[in-house]
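Feature request, filed as a ticket because there's no other form

It would be nice if the structure record came with a short human-readable summary line next to the tokens. Right now we just get the raw output. Example of a typical job, pasted below so the devs can see what we mean:
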Amino acid sequence: MTLFRDRADAGRQLAARLEDYKGKAEVLVLALPRGGVPVAFEIATAINAPLDVMTVRKLGTPGQPELAMGAIATGGVRVMNEDVLRMCAISEEAIAAVAERELKELARREQAYRGDRKRPEIAGKVVILVDDGVATGATMRAAIAALRQLAPAKIVVAVPHGAEETCETLRREADELVCLATPWPYMAVGRWYQNFTQTSDAEVARLLAAANEPRVARSE
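Raw output as currently delivered:
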């Protein structure tokens, strides 16, 4: 069983649940790249809001890169897992080295996605944070924690589907959660799409550019 034809279909269905935010100047749509961007594009277009990306990079523990000691996100915002730091006795120097490496990769990716456009201002904005689904929710939770440090007025997490337990966690950590379905057993994010082809960097860049064309030009 599939729930959505593709990410664009999922985005259009989500947009119908987000109409209360349509046309409001303080609203900003942020996508978790790459898969969240086609979903978020449909939302941003439908509610006439600007679109950008919220890139998150895991900070792997030295010697155990699969174990996350934290994450770094758009704007250089860092979120650390204090339990892992204590358990592994990781020095500030080691943290700084990993963070510097991941920050360079984050900057490279954002340059590829955004080009010369400046990052949007987050403070005081109603941020709609979008992905194409949430299984463990680790990346989304890191994005929420990073956004909190940038003082938005409100964080709305919008996903087409997710694991029920994960969605309950996100409901507590965000200010609002819009999730269309929590199928069980959940399995993988791609399981619920008829077409789940990988979103390329070029497609991300194209959608961001299209979403941020002057509003008059977009309506013609």
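Something like this underneath would help us a lot:
The CA atoms of residues 15 and 46 lie 6 Å apart.
The chain has two domains: 7-55+122-219, 57-114.
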